[in-house]
Design a protein that fits this description.
There is one protein chain. It is built from five helices and four strands; from the N terminus they run ββααβαβαα. By secondary structure, it is α+β, with helices and mostly antiparallel strands. It has one domain (about 10-135). The chain has a two-stranded antiparallel sheet. It has a two-stranded parallel sheet with strand order 3-4. It starts with 8 loop residues before the first strand and ends with a helix.
Length: about 140
């Protein structure tokens, strides 16, 4: 039986328009980590609507007038769930039952940061290509 001692969670914030990761934090599922996520989001993105699941931490950090808690089956947070799946598929070191799993939080942080930069470049390239195709169609 697998145990989740010292469980660490990756929190992501995505831009709904172009699907880029605009902020992230690593830590527990508590308000302190949620606050770090909030502070990692650029100020211009913090002004918009924020769609989350119903985790208590969001209610303590995200301003009520901007917060839109949504059930997973509503479709409002599908993009973040898809990004989480992509993260698990492409970064084997995050999946405990692989040979490449690392227990070093520093290494997780470095790899996560590099992955996000590469992921955002890939998403941006695809987004601009789609915009170009739509403009000439």
């Amino acid at each position: 039986m697998a145990r989740k001692q010292n469980a660490t969670w990756i929190w992501l914030a995505l831009n709904r328009e172009n699907r880029q990761i605009v902020g992230y934090a690593v830590g527990d599922r508590d308000a302190a980590t949620c606050r770090r996520l909030w502070e990692s989001i650029p100020p211009e993105y913090r002004k918009g609507l924020i769609y989350t699941d119903f985790l208590e931490s969001y209610f303590a950090v995200v301003p009520e007038e901007q917060h839109r808690p949504s059930a997973k089956d509503s479709g409002e947070i599908n993009h973040v769930e898809r990004a989480n799946l992509t993260l698990r598929q492409r970064l084997a070191r995050l999946v405990r039952k692989t040979l490449s799993f690392s227990k070093s939080l520093v290494m997780h942080g470095i790899c996560l940061s590099r992955f996000i930069r590469r992921y955002n470049r890939e998403i941006q390239r695809r987004w601009w290509l789609d915009q170009f195709k739509a403009a000439i169609a």
